[in-house]
Model the fold of this input.
Amino acid sequence: IDAFPVAQAISAYFTGNREYANLPRKFKMSVTGCLEDCAQAEINDVGMLPARLEDGTLGFNLRVGGGLSDGPRMASDVDVFVRPEDAVEITRGIAQVFGELGNRENRWTARMRYLVQELGPEEFREELAKRVSVGLTPAGEDLTKRYRGDHVGVHPQRMGGSQTRPYYVGLNVPVGRMSGEQFEEAGRLAGEYGDGVRLATDQNLIVTGVPEDRLDELLAEPLLARYSPNPGAFERGVVACTGSEFCRFGIVETKVRALEWAREMDERVGDLGQGAVRMHFSGCSASCAQPQIGDIGFRGETAKTRDAIVEGVDIGLGGSLGKDAAFIDWVEGAKPAGEVPDALVAVFEQFEEERREGERFHEWARRKKNAELRKALRKPVESGVSP
Done:
């Protein structure tokens, strides 16, 4: 189902609407049209996932109350099917519930997830029903299959009104870092070869509407040597927040370090046969890089070595969204940054030794005990390999 016009209509309704300018705190909404949860419904205040009623009607199942930071929570299923034409009214009603019942006394609990947790899904649905002009239809069949998390590579688009099938080309922008000149060049390429540019939640860039007979020319452009549509598995999956370089909350430097680690893993570990390996690095506990949903998550910390206090990270394993959504378990705390690459190699080597057929890293990590994962992460230091 095409989520774009639905998202546009919701955005147009709320943008500049003074009636909703004084909500308790920020209010994040996502609409996913594909089967791979690319808009991350489970970790937004409002999320819509593709669904189908028994009569074949396509629309969205509603989730509310998701979020990360220090109090992470997966969004709740409130048993509501949203028809595309009702999406604005439903989200308006949710905003009204939040505005009227949300916590305004304590800034730290003034988010939708705390309200949903307090009321519970059933009572929240009742409050929503009181405030909308459409009847609430019970949820339909959930069509989500798995979580992919990126659109890197060359992929066919829906044909739309064209006679030849266009393609979209997802450029890997490691840790989201691009100069102004490079961004301008990306815009030029989109204008010359395609019909637009989209920015993705994984910090990457997508050129849309590229005719098949122009693909080779686009792929030969110098910018795509720097921002490849075919990167290594770890560089493809790395996400990092701004970190201490520009953010006053950042405890550690993130972007340079995350990219170095990803490239080192591509060299030392290579392709695990599961596509992108998602490493998410946040410089503090605010979770701007979404570490809780990564295969591996890092959270900035100070750490002790024999001689000094140094930059370090907490390490978590096993996060994902989609059908088997779950947050990582934080299994190792305050790991000195210099010890991290060897620790990661040790974990991935153990994964390759023990994985079952078709098993992905986050699935393996979840069936292991935290003590076993912690032991693997500490193995290089205990054996004298790491500094």
